[in-house]
Amino acid sequence: MSVTSNAPTRSIDGHLLPAAGTWEIDPGHTDLAFTGRHFMVTKVRGRFTGVTGAVEIGEDLRVSRVDVTIDMTSVESGSETRDEHLRSAELFDVARYPTATFQSVDVEWRGTRGTVHGDLTIHGVTRRVPLDVEFEGYVRDPWGGDRTVFSARTRVNREDFGITWNVALEAGGVLVSKEVQIEINLETVLRGGS
């Protein structure tokens, strides 16, 4: 059962959740990170700082929608040399594919967690991926804005998106892992909120 009003949150089956409406992504407080392995052992982390879009929360959470655009040129991994390689034609090829997108197609939700299935387009290739999502909470900021925070994670095989560059290692294996873990901390602001 939901409490309906102009309130930015509501209670559904005893769980505090965002009210229905459009919650715009705050790029300055959103972290989209990825982790891969280097030499099959070392974890290498990176992030994208240019993330925009919105989460459209439905009265019924299962009809909610997510639409995100990622500026692939905004990649940061702690090494300018590595970042330049990531942007190059061998990997992300940002000259041809400057953005990536995620558009939801189906939402499963229970309590404060759910799975958002969506079309992820990277490097000009679209694949359906599941995002495991959790609602982390709500806060009103000092300027009267209503904010919600979500976390999400998934794993993808970069070769499924045509990003196949690699180097074989003499001892076996490859320089860069095919599997990449993606973790997202998403802060949103209610559009038209008080």
From TrEMBL:
What residue intervals traverse the membrane? Answer: none
Outline the extent of the Lipid/polyisoprenoid-binding YceI-like domain: 22-189
Q: Which InterPro entries match?
A: Lipid/polyisoprenoid-bd_YceI (IPR007372), TTHA0802/YceI-like_sf (IPR036761)
SMART domains attached to this UniProt entry? YceI (SM00867)
Pfam families with a match to the protein in the record: YceI (PF04264)
Give the family this protein belongs to, as stated in its UniProt record: Belongs to the UPF0312 family.
Designated name of the protein: YceI family protein
Species whose genome carries this gene? Nocardioides bizhenqiangii
